[in-house]
Design a protein that fits this description.
With 337 residues, this protein is of the alpha+beta class. It has a domain at 215-326: Elongation Factor Tu (Ef-tu), domain 3 (Beta Barrel), CATH 2.40.30. The chain has seven helices and 18 strands. It has helices at 18-22, 46-51, 100-109, 135-140, 182-189, 198-207, 244-252; strands at residues 13-14, 29-32, 36-42, 67-72, 78-86, 90-96, 117-120, 125-131, 151-154, 160-163, 173-179, 194-196, 258-265, 274-277, 285-292, 298-305, 313-315, 322-326. The strands form three sheets. Strands 13-16-15-14-17-18 form a six-stranded antiparallel barrel. It has a six-stranded mixed β-sheet with strand order 9-10-11-8-2-12, sandwiched between helices. It starts with 12 loop residues before the first strand and ends in an 11-residue tail after the last strand. Mean pLDDT is 91; it is low at 1-8.
């Protein structure tokens, strides 16, 4: 079945027919995530180099795990959010293609004497999301193992299946990372599933309140502002990395005033756009990501002071289109691990 196309939209924003998004509410569907690219980090010092640069504990990453991670400026602001995994040859960082060249260049500047080499490896991996009720059973028809309660499994062909957090409206979500020729095999095996645009996967990420960083939002957020530590993307027990003092100070000194929330609007929400309260002359927050919702309109992740995340907010101005918050699918707990 030919893949349905979504409408071109700014980065971090996905516009799609509501009926197409709604298909994942009733059946398993497959979506190629073409707007993500991959950086490979190779060499004897790959792990130690990344350990000194990223927010999570890369040293503890094993072959079976897909890890959430972040890369900050010296001021603690996020340049990128990654999925990362490793094999015998390299550690891989998956991030939006539009920011990949700049992140690759910046990371490469700090290699110095480390035995590590960074290169783009986008063409060596295929990312496929399988989401919707029955997704696990669909994957089990060809995969020898499927994670049942979370985590990842490594398949004999080098593919990885990660069970993503469920969302309030989508009970089963999986990410398949397939290298080389195994990607073709995976696509053939899943050919009977309805194929949908990547916008559907990104809407499920928003419904699950799982954030990312795009060109429109680079250097806007400290990790806690988009709940990255609650999602498991920050370790507070590892060594130093750029921005670590800012991130740790925010955590331990009780300065976590700004948090990511989820909301709905009937207007077009754009990543990086301002969020206003009705009584505010200045913006109180920022749209993190937005995508067409199955019921129409758009769902969006946004950050703002936690105490303002109630009642009706507005896009672009204090009298702009309404943005109605709804409860997050997880608790905002203090994390110190």
């Amino acid at each position: 079945m030919a893949t349905e196309l979504s409408v071109a939209a700014p980065s971090g924003t996905w516009i799609c027919e509501p009926a197409t998004v709604a298909s994942c509410l009733v059946q398993p569907v497959a979506a190629s995530i073409d707007d993500l690219g991959v950086i490979a980090v190779e060499g004897a010092d790959a792990a130690s180099f990344l350990q000194s640069q990223l927010t999570n504990d890369v040293a503890g990453l094993d072959l079976n795990r897909v890890q959430l991670n972040g890369y900050c400026s010296a001021k603690g602001r996020l340049f990128a959010v990654f999925n990362n995994w490793r094999d015998a040859e390299a550690i891989y960082l998956q991030l939006p293609r539009e920011i990949l060249p700049a992140v690759l260049k910046r990371l490469s500047m700090f290699v110095l004497r480390a035995k590590a080499r960074l290169r783009e490896a986008t063409d060596e991996w295929t990312s496929l999301a399988v989401v919707g009720p029955g997704s696990g059973a669909a994957l089990a028809q060809w995969a020898p193992a499927v994670p049942q309660t979370g985590g990842s499994v490594l398949l004999p062909d080098g593919s990885r299946i990660t069970r993503l957090a469920s969302s309030p409206q989508v009970s089963e979500r999986f990410l398949l990372l397939a290298p080389g020729s195994s990607a073709t095999l995976a696509s053939m095996q899943l050919a009977l599933l309805k194929r949908v645009p990547g916008a559907v996967f990104w809407w499920t990420q928003i419904d699950a309140a799982v954030s990312n960083v795009f060109a429109a939002t680079q250097e806007k957020f400290v990790p806690q502002m988009i709940n990255l530590e609650v999602l498991g993307g920050v370790s507070f027990r590892k060594g130093c990395y750029p921005g670590q003092e800012v991130v740790a100070r925010s955590q331990y000194l009780g300065k976590l005033r700004r948090r990511m929330q989820i909301g709905h609007t009937q207007a077009t929400a754009r990543a990086g756009a301002d969020v206003f309260a009705a009584d505010a002359r200045e913006p109180i927050g920022t749209i993190v990501m937005a995508a067409s919702a199955p019921q129409g309109g758009m769902d969006a992740l946004f950050e703002c002071p936690a105490e303002r995340a109630a009642g009706t907010l507005h896009l672009d101005s204090s009298s702009g289109p309404a943005l109605t918050p709804r409860p997050l699918p997880y608790a905002l707990v203090d994390v110190t691990a």
